[in-house]
Amino acid sequence: PEWASYNIGIFxxxxxxxxxxxxxxxxxKVKHLKLDRWEDxxxxxxxxxxxxxxxxxxxxxxxxxxxxxxxxxxxxLVEQWIRAKYEREEFxxxxxxxxxxxxxxxxxxxxxxxxxxxxHPRKFVLCEAEDTLKYHVKENKEPKAVLRIxxxxxxxxxxxxxxxxxxxxxxxxxxxxxxxxxxxxxxxVITNWYLAIRCAKLHRLQVAYPGATEAExxxxxxxxxxxxxxxxxxxxxxxxxxxxxxxxxxxxKLMYHDDPMDAHPKGEIFLGHSSDGxxxxxxxxxxxxxxxxxxxxxxxxxxxxxxxxSDDDRSQWMNVIxxxxxxxxxPQDAT
Length: 335
Ligand SMILES: [Zn+2]
Fold this sequence. Notes:
Layout (H helix, E strand, L loop, with lengths): L2 E3 L4 E3 L1 H10 L6 E3 L7 H9 L1 H9 L16 H13 L10 H4 L2 E9 L6 E9 L4 E5 L8 E4 L4 E4 L9 E8 L2 E8 L3 H22 L5 H5 L8 E7 L9 E8 L2 E5 L9 E4 L8 E4 L11 E5 L4 E5 L3 H16 L9
Antiparallel strand pairs: 1-2, 1-3, 4-5, 4-10, 5-6, 6-7, 8-9, 9-10, 11-12, 11-17, 12-13, 13-14, 15-16, 16-17
Helix pairs in contact: 1-4
Zinc ion binds next to α1.
InterPro entries: Arf-GAP_dual-PH_domain, ARFGAP/RecO, ArfGAP_dom, ArfGAP_dom_sf, PH-like_dom_sf, PH1_ADAP, PH2_ADAP, PH_domain
Protein name: Arf-GAP domain-containing protein
Main location: cytoplasm
């Protein structure tokens, strides 16, 4: 690391140093290890505390549902983790976690309209005991929609939303996937909603699978998308023209949409295991039109001819799809 916080007594990386500085010097006093002047007392403070002891103190009671950010986590999650830790000291004082661990949360979020694609304030109510996340158009009227928490997925700030404080919530409705998009101006609030959904999911899974380890359950709470982007695909016949579609890989489901923010995918492709006739190959079959950077996705039902935007784009898509079809099916994958 190149930086240190001399009041907390820890070394930090460049990215975290910026976040520490933004909290203000009353929380964290940051200096560069080489470019700043250090007083003996400041050096001693770091010697006395150090990262290991600081972690034991500031992370003493992190709730299991909390998503500890790894280096490629969305920026807001990294920022809120650091603020929760040092500014709000949520993991030293568990009662400060009540917003998101209590199993109930309500408040307004801006929700993207399905028809007009503008954002409108909607009242959301999360209730773990009922396994529901509801939202209301008019506060005192019936909810517009009732989602099962155990059946929905929430992805944090997918880049296509161009909003760091956003969530994409996806769930099944009438046999097809439905996406809704919400955001809140306050990064702490949107993070708390995300954590509240994760906590409610974890608690329900713990009841449903008492024998499962916490690590197994934690891996099932929420999924960011391994890859999203435009690809061109043909229709069912090889001679059909290539059309531009927005593809989203979500677990074993490869969805394609007309527009990145569509409420419903145009199609959903289940990706099974390679031993059941699923394969991804570069190029197109003989006789089919090749639009460049093409690859073929074979499933038992249909062969999809796809065309990427570049060589690199194609190999990234092929890699993420290959990873999925190499993975054995689990009982939860059954469709
Ligand atoms: Zn860092």
